[in-house]
Structure formats: C-alpha cells, structure tokens
Input
Amino acid sequence: MPVKTQRYIAILSVVLFLAKMLAWRLTHSVTVLTDALESIVNMVAGFLGLFSIILANMPRDSNHPYGHGKAEFLSSAVEGTLIMIAGVLVIYEAVQHLIVPHKLQELNLGLLIIAACGGINFLAGKYAETRGKKNNSMILISAGKHLQTDAYSTIAIIIGVVLLLLTNNRYVWLDSVVALCFAVIIMITGYKVLRKSISGIMDETDVVLLKEVIKVIQENRRPQWVDLHNLRVIQYGSMMHVDAHMTLPWYFKVIDADREVHALEALIKSHFKNQVELFIHIDGCMPYQCKLCAVADCPERQHVLQQQLEWTIDNLWADAKHGKEKEG
Output
C-alpha cells in the first residue's frame, strides 16, 4: 500500500508542476515561480521516495543484515538538500526582479491555478500522512507533511497576488518581497528535513519512539522480568530493531528464558503493529537484585523486595545491571 500511495504522489507532483509553470508563464510573477520551483523538489522527491520505499521494503540479505530501511533517510537527505537549493534559487530570482522589475500579467487566471494546486496539495498531503502513520512509513509521513507545508505556503503566494490585484499592479516590488519571505520558509523546511534524515543516518535516538517502547514494557512487565538495561531502539522503514539485556531468575531453564523473550516480542509487536526484530541478551539475576525482584514465590530469594525499579529512558540505556549500588 505505501508503494501505491507514493506512486500516486509522484504522478501528481508532475501534474502540479506543469500547472504551476503554466501559471508562471501567464503571470511572469516571481512569487508564482517560487511555488513552481518548489514543485520541482516535490517531483524529484516523489520519484526518489517511490524508489526508496521499494528499496526499503526489500528483505535483508547478506550484504544488508539490518535490511534496506536506511534508504528512506538517504531519500529524505536528498529531498532536504533540494529544498534548500530551491530556496537559494528563489532568493536569486526575487533579487533580480527587485533590481529589474517586470510587469505582471494574467493575475486572475494565475491566482485560480495556484489556488487549485494548493488545495490539491493539502488533500494529497493529508492522505499521504494518514497512510504513512498507518503503515509506519517515514517517507509517506515526510511527503505528506511536505505537501501540506507547500499548501500552507501557497496561501502566502495567494496573498501576494491578491495585493497586486488590489493595488492594480502598481507595487510590483511586493511580488519579490513575498517571494523572499517564502524563500526563507522553504530553506527552514529544507533544513528540518535534512536535519531529521542525518539524525536517522547517524542512528540518533528517537526519544519519542524510545519512550513509547519503555512505556509499553513498563505497563505490561512480568514479575520474572527482574531487570532490563542496555536498551536500544532503531526504526528503519517498517522494521523496528530492539536490542536489550534482560535479567531473569538465574535458575530459569533455557526453555523458560525463551518463553519470556517471545512474550516481550509479542508485546511489542501487538502494540506497534509492524515488523519487529529483537536481539535480547539474557542475564541471570544476582543476589543484590533480590531487593528489586517482584517474583513472589522465588525459592532462592536472599533479600526481601524493597521496591521494584520503574524503568525510564534515563535508567535503561546504560550497559549495567540495576540494584548493585543498593547492596549492603
């Protein structure tokens, strides 16, 4: 489904680009040109996103043991760079028109075309974002937000053209001023997209995702899950990787430990509704952890339960068992 949705977005981006170029040719407005230039970004990003979704959904192989999900981040990085380049081009064109003003034409027809494109962009963006959230697709979510941002910025363009109409085309410089303001918005958007993609390539912690994973585990933890530490969560495309060290009662048999790992996997899968790959290292509990252990009928207990440790983002990332500092 994400591939089909992205294919529609790519085709739509070509249609809207041609429509905006027509509006620019009719009006000779640099503000309209800025919108058309950003549509080039939408068009390139649309087809690049389509390729990236196809690549990201390919199964892992010997050359890519973690799958191909990072293709989404590379696609977003290119998209962010193109957006910033478009912003620079807009600034150049706006300054040129300030120096040598051009008379604007056919503003009424151009306004109608741009308004129609803006409305279509918003509806398509909303749909793409909804499908992206449902299918855990970063590309669709990013594309949806980008299209909606494009629609919002179209409002600024419409305002600029309306001002020119109201002033009977006397203040042509307004066209360039609005374009410059729009260029700043474009470059900020490009920076945000590029920043997010680089953080994904560098495996920067997704704090929101990590907190949600911890919340799910904390609220559904079993008494025999004595401790959890060295937790790392990374999402590439539709695949979420979870690494952790889980402490279980030391006397558990292998089959018992296997059952607990599968229970944790089922818990995460049932909540996130996507592919999950777990790498769990099993540790046996130590005597000092009895004070944190909630196993009611433990035959090897050496200390009474004082308080079960509440797992949080601050105490689960370190590669160290909890409870040792309380010993003695």
The radius of gyration is 27 Å. The first strand starts at residue 227 and ends at 236. The chain has two domains: 2-201, 207-326. Helices lie at 2-27, 30-56, 71-99, 107-135, 138-166, 173-201, 207-219, 254-272.
